[in-house]
């Protein structure tokens, strides 16, 4: 029984390693950061849309986290396109100026969101417009530079 269990466990571990992305590769780094950004953004949006209870301090902390994360993924886009299985279109590398412009817009929108959270007490209604800008910045880049 132990031998069978060991074989099954080894097979599962081997299969889980297949097709994975090296977490230390530029693609792996980007994916990790983008997933963290998505989770944080979903939590903030959830508080504003009533899916999660609104907590002003938690929202402000999340805005700071999102702002910090928004400055990270761009440095993991190499100057030359990798051969990895990426969701990024070739345009990322062919239209670097535009890509960098959208990255700066994302950073500006998250910085604006943080600035708004410094006013107390926080009200969800006051945070909707700046959060909409953050979401629009995400969408603009995805529309132009990501294979869906």
Question: What does this entry look like structurally?
Answer:
The chain has a domain at 26-78 and 99-145: Four Helix Bundle (Hemerythrin (Met), subunit A) (Up-down Bundle), CATH 1.20.120.10. It contains 6 helices and no strands. The mean pLDDT is 88. The protein has helices at 2-17, 26-49, 56-70, 91-94, 96-117, 124-145. It is mainly α.
Short description:
The protein is an all-alpha fold and 148 residues long.
Question: What features would you highlight for this structure?
Answer:
6 helices; Four Helix Bundle (Hemerythrin (Met), subunit A); 0% strand; 148 residues; 70% helix; mainly alpha; globular
Task: Describe how the helices and strands are arranged.
Blueprint: H1 2-17, H2 26-49, H3 56-70, H4 91-94, H5 96-117, H6 124-145
Helix pairs in contact: 2-3, 2-6, 3-5, 5-6
Structural class: mainly alpha
Q: Indicate the low-confidence ranges by residue numbers.
A: none
Helix % is 55-70%
**Percentage beta strand:** under 5%
* Order of secondary-structure elements: HHHHHH
The CATH topology label of the domain at 26-78 and 99-145 is Four Helix Bundle (Hemerythrin (Met), subunit A)
Give a quick account of the main beta sheet: strands, pairing sense, barrel closure: none
Number of strands: 0
CATH superfamily of the domain at 26-78 and 99-145: Cytochrome c/b562
**Rounded to an integer, what's the Rg over CA atoms?**
19 Å
Q: Count the DSSP helices.
A: 6
| Arithmetic mean pLDDT | 88
User: Which CATH architecture of the domain at 26-78 and 99-145 is right?
Assistant: Up-down Bundle
CATH top level of the domain at 26-78 and 99-145 is: Mainly Alpha
Shape: globular
Distance between the termini: 45 Å
């Amino acid at each position: 029984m132990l031998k069978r269990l060991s074989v099954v466990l080894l097979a599962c571990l081997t299969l889980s390693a297949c097709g994975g992305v090296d977490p230390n590769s530029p693609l792996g780094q980007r994916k990790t950061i983008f997933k963290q950004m998505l989770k944080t953004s979903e939590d903030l949006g959830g508080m504003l849309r009533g899916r999660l209870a609104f907590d002003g301090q938690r929202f402000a902390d999340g805005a700071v986290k999102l702002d910090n994360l928004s400055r990270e993924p761009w440095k993991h886009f190499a100057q030359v396109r990798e051969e990895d299985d990426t969701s990024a279109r070739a345009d990322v590398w062919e239209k670097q100026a535009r890509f960098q412009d959208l990255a700066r817009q994302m950073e500006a929108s998250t910085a604006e969101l943080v600035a708004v959270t410094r006013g107390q007490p926080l009200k969800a209604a006051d945070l909707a417009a700046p959060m909409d800008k953050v979401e629009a910045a995400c969408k603009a880049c995805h529309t132009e530079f990501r294979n869906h």
